[in-house]
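Supplementary Note 3. Input sequence used for the single-chain structure prediction.
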Amino acid sequence: MFRQLVVVVVCTIMSSLLAAQEFRTEPLSPTDRLYIENQIASIDDIASRSFGRHLSGQKDNDIAIMQRLLDEKIVKPADVRMLQGMGILLGSLLKAEKGLNWIAYTDKYGRSRSLQVPGFTRDYIFPATQISRKAEVGLQVDVSEVYQELEQAIIAIRNRPLL
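The predicted structure, written as discrete structure tokens, is reproduced below.
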């Protein structure tokens, strides 16, 4: 009986260790923060040069600018960095509107900048690639729809019980 209990305890500890190794999170570094700022600045710069308009941090304005950049093919499917910059901009809008936190998320695939819903430690939002993945495979991107999908993911997370 004792041996079975030891096996169960060891298996439980191993499961916990393996789960802990699946991913880890940490606060953004100064380099991460600068990267986010630079990505948003690059979108603002191209919008300013193309349309004479600037990002404002207002959801409707910024989504309209990104949509126009895509619709007028100023930002093309091959412009992965710019497309990911748009995803980061969407993330920044969500962060401000929904009270989220940017974090650095690392798993076996690498390191990403992610949004965390405060209080939830197993569910994350990855806005940076949401636009680029669609554009890269030739889909027509509706930026407002992408924003709404991310909003729904946040609502789903908030409706889960805290772990």
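Strands lie at 23-26, 101-107, 110-116, 124-125. The first strand starts at residue 23 and ends at 26.
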